[in-house]
Design brief:
Number of strands: 0
CATH architecture: Up-down Bundle
Largest sheet: none
Strand content: under 5%
Number of domains: 1
Order of helices and strands: HHHHHHHHH
Mean pLDDT: 89
Radius of gyration: 19 Å
Helix content: over 70%
Structural class: mainly alpha
Distance between the termini: 44 Å
Length: about 220
């Protein structure tokens, strides 16, 4: 989910131990097949759509399959960037496509979980899912196009944008679906509030950074 310009140092545990290793494993195959980075991005989007479908009115087994498909989408999300850098095919279009595909996958997975939770929680849960999806979209736009300053506080905020927390939500969804399905609407509401909190935190840090770097009247005098 992070823009590649921030480097691997901001990766979460899942990025470091699953997605980047998976990307390295498939990179030679992608080169041998002569796939373009944009083609890999579209493959990742297809995997994300398939993952979202598995979370829609999910069973425990379909949700587990959705988790696997989501992990493969994340590997593809890393592999397209690695392939672009290795083959010298980085472009503004490729970056836009990469961000759009990854964001769409996350949003649709959220909506899929909300559709499942809405079977017991009703329209209010579906509304919470829509609010959560809007928060995911706003957070993605800020992280990738209007990130917080590249200082200690800004980088700490960016570390929260990795996939680790989203994996916790997915795993929590599966566990509740298996053992306490009536709690699923509450999970969607937590996700709705949390997704708004992230982009608001980004905006707050940008505003504070501007204040920190604004020359004081005393300094001007």
């Amino acid at each position: 989910m992070l823009d590649s310009s921030f480097g691997a140092e901001l990766d979460g545990l899942t990025d470091r131990f699953i997605h980047r290793r998976g990307s390295r494993l498939v990179l030679r195959l992608l080169i041998r097949l002569r796939l373009t980075p944009n083609a890999v991005t579209l493959i990742g989007l297809a995997l994300g759509l398939a993952a979202a479908w598995q979370f829609w009115h999910a069973t425990v087994l379909s949700a587990l399959l959705g988790l696997l498909l989501y992990s493969l989408e994340a590997v593809a999300d890393h592999a397209d960037g690695d392939l672009a850098r290795l083959t010298g095919r980085e472009s503004a279009l490729g970056r836009w496509l990469d961000v759009s595909a990854d964001t769409a996958s996350n949003i649709l997975v959220v909506l899929g979980m909300a559709a499942t939770a809405g079977l017991g929680g009703g329209p209010a849960t579906l509304l919470a899912g829509a609010v959560a999806a809007a928060g995911v979209l706003a957070s993605s736009l800020l992280v990738n196009f209007f990130p917080p300053p590249n200082d200690r506080a800004g980088r700490a905020i960016l570390r929260l944008a990795n996939r680790d927390l989203f994996y916790l939500v997915l795993i929590g969804f599966i566990l509740l679906l298996w053992s306490a399905e009536w709690l699923l609407p509450y999970l969607i509401w937590v996700l709705a509030v949390g997704s708004q909190g992230y982009w608001l935190l980004c905006l707050a840090e940008r505003a504070l950074a501007r204040r920190r770097h604004r020359p004081s009247h005393r300094a001007l005098a």
